[in-house]
Amino acid sequence: MTPMTADRLRRIHDVTDNFFFWQGLRWIPLGTAMLAYAFMRSVDFSTASDAREWIALSLFALALWLSTSVLGRYYARHFGRVRGDASRHVVRTSVKWFLVYPAIVVAMLVDLELVPPLIVSGLAYALAIEAYRQSTGGGRAHYTAFAIGLVAFSILPLFGAAPVGRSGLTPLIGIIGLIYIVGGVLDHRELVRVLAPIEEERHVASV
Amino acid sequence: MSRPFEELADLDRLIHEPARLAILTALAACKAADFLYLQRLTGLSKGNLSSHLSKLENAELVTVEKEFVDKIPNTRISITKAGRAAVERHWKRLDQLRQASLEWAPDASG
Questions:
Q1: Of A12, A19, A198, the CB nearest to B25
Q2: Is residue A105 included in any domain, yes or no?
């Protein structure tokens, strides 16, 4: 049995409390779709823009299906099921819907309409990522590193090193997609560390 | 004032056992979890985990229900009101003991 230290018990509590968010592989399809969308927007394909939007929409629908159905079943089968207690997260849910998401939408509108000399949406996402890390069980220092990276990217236009406005949002979507992918892999690794494979499973895997 | 080490002996053995404390700590953070999740969490064999769950169930700290999920049998475990209160009380006690051990001076208490 894994030794039970106070830190491990705290981690057990946090992971159980936020089990859905630690299922990192679930974020990879969405990240891939965002990356593909950013690529399609940045490369001048001969396809009409309407067709591109439909392709993107299909990609996001596929990502949603993979994330909820296929990967949801994978986690239930290999890591078990936890029925979360929504009443423990009323503040987080309220902050997410009434503060974080509206702030991101407003930031994007500011970037598109007012075209400030830096990418405001990047700064909003950086704050959202750090808030996400803290409100879903802490740890996972990679999210803090991502947030710092996003801040650095967002201020690049001040030095003339990156575009602003609509042109600045396209690479931002790609970077966020990449964050979902890398963050997802690292989250999954952390989850495996907390929920180590059981002996029977190890034996089956080694056969 | 008794020494922190002596107070350790007063801790509830049923809850303080590492695997059972891990199970109760996890269950206190959710509505329910299944057998596989608790097995991965504790690293126990099926037999050992069943034995710990039986002890907790007999003490009315958890409830164990069998159900079918997608036609596959699934064992769902939830913490009871008494179990939640007991594990919260236990953690509070452990925090107090940790604090006491930091403040404890061997010469002063004999």
A1: A12
A2: yes
Chain B residues close to A198, C-beta within 8 Å:
39-40, 43, 45
b/e burial code for range B71-104 (CB count within 10 A of at least 16 → b): eeebbbbbbbeebbebbeebbebbeebeeeeeee
Q: Tell me the nearest-neighbour CA distance from A198 into chain B, angstroms.
A: 6
**pLDDT tens column, A123-148:** 999 999 999 999 999 999 999 999 99
Q: Is residue A15 part of a domain?
A: yes
Percent of chain B whose predicted confidence (pLDDT) is above 90: 62
Report how far residue A165's alpha carbon sits from residue A168's, in angstroms, rounded to the nearest whole number: 5
Residue A204 resides in a domain: no
CB pairs under 8 A between A and B: 87
CB-based contact, A207 to chain B, within 8 Å: no
- Tell me the average pLDDT across B26-53: 95
| Spatial separation of the C-alpha atoms in residues A14 and A23, rounded to whole Å | 13
- Helices A120-135/A142-155 angle, 10° precision: 170
Q: Give me the amino acid identity at A117.
A: P
pLDDT at A204 over 60: no
User: Is the ipTM beyond the 0.95 threshold?
Assistant: no
pTM of the model: 0.86
* Lateral strand order in the sheet of A82-83: A82-83, B32-34, B72-79, B62-69
Q: What is the DSSP letter of A96?
A: I
Question: CB B34: neighbour CB atoms within 10 A?
Answer: 19
CA distance B31 to chain A (A): 5
- Domain presence at residue A205: no
In chain B, DSSP finds a helix count (H) and a strand count (E) of 7, 3
> What would the pLDDT profile of A76-126 be if each residue is shown by its tens digit?
999 999 999 988 899 999 999 999 999 999 999 999 999 999 999 999 999
Q: How many domains does chain A have?
A: 1
What's the half-sphere exposure (Cβ side, CA atoms, 13 Å) at A126?
18
In which domain, by residue range, is A68 found? 2-81+89-197
